[in-house]
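Lab notebook page, bench 4
Experiment: in silico fold of construct C2
Operator: M.H.
Input chain length: 308 residues
Purpose: comparison with the prior construct
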Amino acid sequence: MASPWKHCSILLLSLLLLHLQSSSCLGRQTADSLQSPDASRRKLLQIPGASVPFTPLKVLPREKESHNTNISAHQVLSNGEPCLMFQARRLSLRYERQKQLDLTEQAFSPQKPVDTSQSVCSKDKATLVMRFGDVEDIRDLFIRLQLSNTFYESSGEWWFSLDNISLLYNTSEEAVFNASEVYAPASSSYHCLHVSSLQRYSALLLPSTDHARRWTLTFTDFQIQAFNVTSGKFSPASDCGSFLTPAILMGLVTSLILLLVLAYALHMVIHLKHIEHDGEHKADIYYPENPEHPEHCCVENITEKNIL
């Protein structure tokens, strides 16, 4: 009776296993193609007390770094030596639903460099301040990048991180974005195609204030290095990578659902097998008509046989 259900359950289980295997392979291929192997490694290295069985970070060779002859990198000096370098191919921002502002020319033009005289740099702290002045309806606009330098015993090296990016405007207004996901070893520069507050660009900039939620800020082809700049050039870049993209997240949710269905199918197969085994066992059991006098029943049967 349970045999057809058993066969159907086994068939369903086989199909689920094949689908789960193909989904896992696809998810691994997508993750490998989208995530930089250095991204997860950097996070593990920054956990206090973590062991470091890894080889040195994989970095982009110099010839593969992006260079645009129409932009110039900003430098912050400390005791006459470069302490911080920063450049981007494009810088844009927008306030709520107003027109998007492209500040690339003002920020990185070699002919008319933006005012960075308020920038400072020390051994473990650095601040890059770009003053744009009045930009359309925005009065006295500043963009400030604050960085820190930290030594991690687990990795045995210094790491710099971009703590936050602030927009200061209209004299007293300030919009602050958390940028703690932007970090790299001090011996490398950090490069990312998009450092933005937009979700479609992985939202590495997270609004920290109510004013920041009204702004969208995007750097394209972003590259920065601090505290260990040599020869006035960027070191080989440690490239960013994003793991939890919408496609990968959807794949993880689908895999979880399939695992639940698989567990339920296994439970049903075991349950049906148990029912079938109990049915076969009950068919072999003999129940006497009068269990209170089994001996009398047996004596009557023997007497009837003798008479015959």
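Observations: Residues 45 and 155 are 5 Å apart (CA to CA). The first strand starts at residue 74 and ends at 78.
Next step: discuss at group meeting.
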